[in-house]
Write a structure and sequence with these properties.
heterodimer; A: 442 residues; alpha/beta; Rossmann fold; seven-stranded mixed β-sheet; two-stranded antiparallel sheet; 13 helices; B: 404 residues; 3 domains; six-stranded mixed β-sheet; two-stranded antiparallel ribbon; 14 helices; globular; binds zinc ion; tRNA processing (chain B)
Amino acid sequence: MPKPCANCATNTAAIVRPKDRSALCKPCFFTIFETEIHHTITSTNLFARGERIAIGASGGKDSTVLASVLKTLNERYDYGVDLILLSIDEGIKGYRDDSLETVKQNAKEYGMELTILGYRELYGWTMDQVVEQVGKKGNCTYCGVFRRQALDRGAARLGVKHVVTGHNADDVAETVLMNLLRGDLPRLSRTTSIVTSTPSAASSTDPNSHTNIKRSKPLKYAYEKEIVLYALHKNLTYFSTECIYSPEAFRGSARALIKNLERVRPSAILDVVRSGEDMAKLCPGSDEGCGGACSNSVPVAEEEEGGCGSSNGRTAGGEMAGVEKQLAQNEVAAETGLEIEITSNGTNGTKTNAVPVVNGKKGKKNKGQSQPARKAVPKQVMGQCKKCGYLSSQEVCKACTLLDGLNKNRPKNSIEVGYDEAQEDAKLNDAISEVKKLEVGP
Amino acid sequence: MRAYDCQDCGGAAFPEIHHHQQPWLPFRYSTVDYQNILSVSAGTMPGKHVDDGASEPCRRCKENTAVLVVRSEPLCRDCFTRYVHTKAVKRLESFRVRNAALDHQRKFLLALSFGVSSVTLLHVLDHLLQTQRGKTGRTGFAVDVVFVEVPGATVLKDGTLAEAQKAYPDFGYASLPLHDIFLQTSDPGLSSLVPNLIPEDSSSPSEKLTSLIASLTSATARADVISTLTTRLIVEHAKATGCEGILWGDSTTKLAEKTLSETAKGRGFSLPWRTSDGDSPLGLTFNYPLRDVLKKELVSAKQASMSSKNTTIDDLMRNYFEEVETNFPSIVSNVVRTTGKLETPSVPASKSRCDLCSMPVLDGRFGIHGWGGDQQDGSEVLSVQTGPKLCYGCTRSIPQNTTG
Ligand SMILES: [Zn+2]
Ligand SMILES: [Zn+2]
Ligand SMILES: [Zn+2]
Ligand SMILES: [Zn+2]
Ligand SMILES: [Zn+2]
């Protein structure tokens, strides 16, 4: 006997909802899925009437569903927002062709304006040119760094102040566990917030400055599996992009854990997100104990927010083995007397966060109490890149550092091949390792 | 949930609570040679054993042959024992004789699960007390030991507690059935969680416990509620017997597991209270003297085969960290250090607490509704605030019927 829908009790159930395993008919599943996203948007006051919002569209399932649902909700609830699609073309021959076709088709279906911006326009270099210049080995660094800024730079070009991305609950939960594993509380607290922004541009006189772009993730509480079901049953056209970059070990490890947790208890993904939000309030230096989970804006710079195939790249130096080695060295150092404090940023390190502590000051501690020293995590100092104005913890942001290296070495014309290749290579590698140093920390 | 007959002893056991496993120290451990506990575990440590053929000398004493490698240092048995003792005693600085008033004996409660960590801690404490007595003629503190009997988990069949008592006679011992929690606390909130309770104490504590556990629908929920009640019973017992704090046997690895599994259960808000040394909102201090020792340094933990239906979140994390610990021990320690950096929220005395775990719930954020990730469209659900008040994580284990 067919099972009736748990919601309307009229239709036959066709879908078992991954979030709570309830059996629903198709129309009820659609409505519930959409209503939850509406609830996310309204309870966080995400949109303002009249706002122009760019959807970061990759052609993948997340951003396709995001575009479809936002269009539906904007009409149903009259948000009065102007939705456009923004795609980034890295300039890798063949790689984006199919997904950009998908985005173009979506633009037609949803009647949305579409802008495709290439790395060439944004940075003056396509990824193919970068690879040609630096070789296969170092290009991942460039790709990741460029990718993280591309949407903001693109939005700035269009004069759009708000970009929404397709990050889902699985991505956020994964990021929470990943940052617990690598001990990065500041990043944990930033990435659980629904809105991350690059503020501080009040002082900026350039209206096109990309330092004041608000970024948000309306699908923050939506399960990846439900996004797939929604796309499937709505017959949405999307392109399954296999990420061409293998996820770093920490993310891979956290992702596997999330999948297992979901199997044991379906609500676990949502529960991790909730924990992450609550822990953000307990992070040292969070604003009045809210960590941005309740205030609507948390500064985020060259962040990786998770989600393969979306707007993110990978962070170099995130490998577990490397981190393990560094931590083990620090442990030895601590035992032999010179304690190098392992702070949150052992992996992505800004210099401000690595505080060498000489033994005797902080190293020997806690006479007569078993309380572990609760060290304040120095708040990451966010400034602006003096070249491009992008929010950065360094004087010059990673993208500009890399571009510098590239531009210095750009062949004047294609015939000029007489330069000392080895020497140029070395210079480029220097530039890369500069950036790596920023990421890995001293 | 139905109890089943344990294959080892024939006693009744709940499926997810293994015969020799207690919820707050959940790894398998069977035969314990108390006096030689450290040497035993040194001899059975997994993974990084020194090859039998190679007779590398001990890095510390440079005399004996190393039997195992601890954080890349080959150590002999004696030096390893000293290593664990040192790590633990370092955490017990405040337990020194010089900190003890002459007219008042400080007393702590050791939560013994018969897992290798708490047994090791028992040994370490005994050793420490003997050393203190030998040096000064008195001790800085006294220790009581408590064991909680979880229904069906018949660890005591071999008279293990009596054995421990024989081996370490200086401690006071108590064994309490878990259902005593309904006697030890007058908290009406706790009883309100028992489904279909006939008014006014007509059911016995053990009936209450059975009916509460039977009402839970998943292995994770059962394990979670049992371990929460166990903690509360230990706390109540400590208070009733005049202990100023509780000594938990948790290793680094266990604390890392706890960090991730409580996160996964939606209890991120209470992490600092569950993992750090010092004042607990439950009204006394929590101490984790083995927090700097990895589990693999204590025991060869045997992988248990688990059916996925009865797998709990705690099981999952235990397996996960068993793996991580093998190759990345420092990452395990770093997770615990990271949790230690979370700020403990200050709790006004009047704050309302969760009926199950008794943790303070700030801003009245009870239940699973009324936040951005709410599965229902919020507002109308919030108004119904009858029945027990549970924190987010406890609501996941004991779902509340919101419609009335
Ligand atoms: Zn229906
Ligand atoms: Zn790359
Ligand atoms: Zn820049
Ligand atoms: Zn030795
Ligand atoms: Zn609770």
